[in-house]
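Notes continue from the previous slide.

Worked example: a multi-chain complex. Inputs as given:
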Amino acid sequence: MDFLSLFVIIPVLMLLGFIPCRNIKQVRAVAVIGATIELGLAIALLFMFLNERNLGNTADMLFMADYLWYPALNIHYAVGVDGISVVMILLSAIIVFTGVFASWNIQPLTRDFFIWLTLLAIGVYGFFISIDMFTMVLFYETALIPMYLLIGLWGTGKKEYSAMKLTLMLMGGSAFLILGVLGIHFSAETADGSLSFNILEIAKANIPMEWQRVFFPLTFVGFGVLGAMFPFHTWSPDGHASAPTAVSMLHAGVLMKLGGYGCYRIAICLLPEAASEMAWIFLLLTGISVVYGAFGAIKQTDLKYINAYSSVSHCGLVLFALLMLNKTAMTGAIMQMLSHGLMTALFFALIGMIYGRTHTRDIRDLNGLMRIMPFLSVCYVIAGLASLGLPGLSGFVAEMTIFVGSFSHPDMFHRVLTIIACSSIVITAVYILRVVGKILYGVCTNEEHLKLTDAVWYEKIAVIGLIVCVTIIGMFPHWVSDIISGSINW
Amino acid sequence: MFTYTLPILVIPALMFIFLGLMDNKFKPMTSGILGTIGLGIVAILSYIAAYDYFFSVGLIDGIYQKIIAFNFEWLKITEHLHIDLGILLDPISVMMLVVISTVSLMVHIYSFGYMNGERGFQRYYALLSLFTFSMLGLVVATNIFQMYIFWELVGVSSYSLIGFYYTKKSAIAASKKAFIVTRFADFFFLVGILLVSFYSETFDFISLTNPENNELIMKTAGLSFLGISVLSWGMMLIFMGGVGKSAMLPFHIWLPDAMEGPTPVSALIHAATMVVAGVFLVARLFPVYYLGTPEVLTIIAYIGAITSLFAAIVACTQTDIKRVLAFSTISQIAYMITSLGVSGLAGHEGLGYMASMFHLFTHAFFKALLFLGAGAVIHAVHSNEMSAMGGLNKYLKITNITFLIACLAIAGIPPFSGFFSKDEILVAAFHSDKILFACLYFCAGLTAFYMFRLYFNIFWNDNNKEYEHTPHEAPFVMTFPLIFLATLTCVCGFIPFSHYVSADAMPFETHINWAIASASIGVALIGIGIATKMYFKKSEIPDKVADTVKGLYTSAYHKFYFDEIWVFVTKRIIFEGISRPIAWFDRHVVDGFMNGLSWTTNFVSQKTKNLQSGLVQDYVTIFIGGALVIVLIMILI
């Protein structure tokens, strides 16, 4: 049994563990134990990885394992990790762990909720450890489907509409994606002439340029939909707004990263020539995402909409930096994925907690929360500051790496776009401070709200956990940046 | 050698974290005392560092060395570019250490009295520590990116302190405004850093500002963009960052509003330290400006002069005492900026540079003194408005005398410190550009006038004013900082500043140019004289004067409508003109397209589902019809 497969096996065991659960306490116990083990494994993986690298193991992928799964089509279950996957797995483990605490009181059908959540986790972990395109897509779809039920059943507001919209749009994206993946599979000429799904083998193979030009847009858009690329981002505001807290956290925190990760690992790394030829089109689109999302957020009144648009902006920056096709910008992109994952999860957790108390997310109905729930409010301010890129918190290092990397592109077009993307730091400040000023400061005028209480212990675990992560990355970015840039061979 | 300077940064940082986490676990006093003790240590270490630097190790072969006391790589970005954090000691950073720690310590002590009993006393001291840490980190930065990092951090601490009374609407708006306006300027700063570092391949100040064989200047030689050299773009953009922080035109609008914060905070952040960051930035990069982009330096000088004049005129009309002081701060900082703009690099040429730093040094003390004095007045009468004051000399003896000393200093009357530094600035301007000199000279008169307008209105005018509660002198914790700063104001003008700070780090001799000095004393006395005539006693003259220059008076009173212009830009253009249409476009066009897709699918399937009716007759009809069509097609083709 290889180590990496544990990441998929533990959630499967969790699923089995949920079956005999008879009450909410048992369900929570299983969920917490499972999530804790996963988090422990992810941390262990990080140290094992660092250790291997220190010992001088320079292979692209470490801890590889390969099982032939379906010989007729040469499909393998193949796993392996490089620095980027390690970071992403760590991110997923942190978000799942805090997500469990954030959905402590989910009602009704608590057990079913956690079953679907765990299934989603299987998809996420499986996607990040796979190095076989077929299983990657398989896990990708596994992660998407539970989303429909999680939003449709446990959501709020127009949940059926949102769930359907989200699922259809993401499925539409994966239709492109599957075409692209199969195309890559059939057109890659490996050394021994066989057809392969393994990304390491395909990376060495030569794909004819005329095919690359076809598959690059297919795969990039396919994953780009999940990465909230303009103009395929509209599932995100509705989806997030309707989803329950933990699902928003997982979705914005981890699932959207599947998009960025896939764009990097499949579209860009496997089709590099097409990527450098066609990058400018998508640079324009993602550049628009960055500014457009930020401007879009200014005028929203629902806290989750604000955050969803802010995600469009921040995730746009991820894809934008990936398309700059240089090592620094790409490192920044992955750091931004990590940073955005943590801080947006923090945001959604806090919004969920505020909503759980006040039963409204409309900023016009909220004010003066600082006096009523100081802990949550201070944390909200910290999340906001992380989002607007305050040094010392994770957003800053990621954004600065991206900007420096993108600006070092010799081409004028790229530099002008970088400056435009930079302007998002100002717009972000506008919408973040607007919300903070509106809902946290001031005097509370709503009698009902005055009776509300501050966070309880399980909420504090979720929030403090995320803040600690955001701060560690912001204060000591060196190690994350080294792990990531060591794995980018560009 | 200078490893003991590390705690100067570490203590306030730890203090912030500690006090911040402990927030309400401590009694208010405990937090305050801890913060003050921490800052006391910082101040002592700063003084030791200054003594060591200036009198024992700094000067080697007649040049003050740049000493890296400590440096480590924080984040490696590319092969060449890495962000370091460290401590760079050179004359200006050591001087700033002394200024910041002294003023901050005084503000810490003063706040015991001023903030006594305020809700959030612990938070206040935690934030003061954060600010002090960030400001100290800014001035000792070894590289421009470290400066940018701390630049943002001071921005955030300023934001939190302006918004300290967060239940007050005006305070929230002011804090938001301060942060966003400076952030907007920082955006240019960031782009400037990106541009400059792209060519220089380093962030490091020592290699960026190397006066001989400067690589940055050599590498950018001949490169231009839109007809302007690339280096000019870069340095201009970087200066824009300073324009924001130092509240120069047109980004000055945040500073008057920032007076919503507690008064000691205004003294520390918005008078003595943070707002001079822009001056410090230009001073830090001065060799690049002077050698590489002299035309930018000229622009800087003119921006400074115009701002100085503008702010001085506005200050004459304001009625809120803190706002008068805010505009006077803007005006004085603009003085420093102008002085840098007219400076050269070597020996006496570099008089402007030295004068600017000297003025920064003296201004920090007397302006902090003015603010703290204003705080004592506000503490006594519970209002910021001049109309609520008058005749306070009877009640506030110590405040009166110290405030008078500060007013004389800022007006440029010898032997107070402001005279010496202001005189050097005027001399530097006189030798470089007569227009700038005229502008600054006029400002000197205005400064004396509006400061004494303020002074008389607070302490003399309306001598028999009735107060609901008899105003009483502030407690000793508040008067001690006043006395201390007043003493500094009296003595620090006699420091032979040019022996320590100069553009090329070589000590030189300066002498008071009595021709210009007597002219400036003259204009100051005229200003004071007019103010005495108008405001010493209650009189009709001010209203009459205001009526004769009605247009000017009204526009100055409304700060020349800059706020209205900015409100128009943000509200009408950005919010209504960009944001709202984008939000609408997104919901109705982009999302509408997606909804349209699903609606079309739905519609088509609704219409075609009847084909599967289950009725054999329908199927037969369609079958025969289809067959006929095919037959027809085959016949026709």
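Summary box: Chain A has one domain: 6-485. Chain A has a mean pLDDT of 88.
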